[in-house]
Amino acid sequence: MKKRMISGAIIALLVCNVSMGANPTSSKTDKAATSMVSKLNADVTLTAQQKETLMKKAKQFQENLEKARAISDKEEATAFMQEATQELKTSIDSTLTIDQKKQKESKEAERENRNRNGSRK
C-alpha cells in the first residue's frame, strides 16, 4: 500500500513538472552557469550588469555542452566545443574591464603556480 502511494506521488510530481514546463536540464544548466560566474566573481569583483551578461553567456555555454554530448562524431563534437569555449572566452574578455582582466590573469597565474608546486590552498 505504501509503495503504491509513493509511486502515485512520484508520478503526480512528474506530471506536474512536465505540465508546468519544468526542465531538469535547465536546472543543471542554471547551477553550472551560476557556479562559473561565482568562481569568476571570486577572482574579480563583477558588477550586477556584468554578472547578468556573463550568466547568459555561461548558460549558453552549458547548453552547448549538452548539445556537444549529443553529437556522436567525436571530431565534430570536439570542434563544436572548441568553438563554444572560444565564444565564452571572448564574451568574458569583452565584458571585463582592463583592470579586471589583469586581476583575472594574476589569479589564474597564482593558481597555476600553486598547482605546479603541489600546493592546494
Summarize the entry for a quick read.
With 121 residues, this protein is mainly α. The chain has helices at 2-19, 24-43, 48-70, 74-95, 98-117.
Q: How does this model look, in words?
A:
This protein is an all-alpha fold and 121 residues long. The protein has one domain. The protein has five helices and no strands. The chain has helices at 2-19, 24-43, 48-70, 74-95, 98-117. Helix 2 packs across helix 3 (48-70) and helix 3 (48-70) runs antiparallel to helix 4. It is globular. The termini are far apart. Mean pLDDT is 81; it is low at 2-9 and 11-24.
- Could you give the count of β-strands? 0
Q: What overall form do the CA principal axes indicate? A: globular
Label the structural class. Answer: mainly alpha
Helicity, in percent? over 70%
- What is the CA-atom radius of gyration, in angstroms? 20 Å
Number of domains: 1
Helical element count? Answer: 5
What is the N-to-C order of secondary-structure elements (H for helix, E for strand)?
HHHHH
Let me know the largest β-sheet: none
β content, as a range? Answer: under 5%
Instruction: Report the mean per-residue pLDDT as an integer.
Output: 81
- How far the N terminus sits from the C terminus, by CA atoms, comes to 52 Å
> Runs with pLDDT <50, length 5+?
2-9, 11-24
Question: How do the strands and helices of this protein lay out in sequence?
Answer:
Blueprint lengths: L1 H18 L4 H20 L4 H23 L3 H22 L2 H20 L4
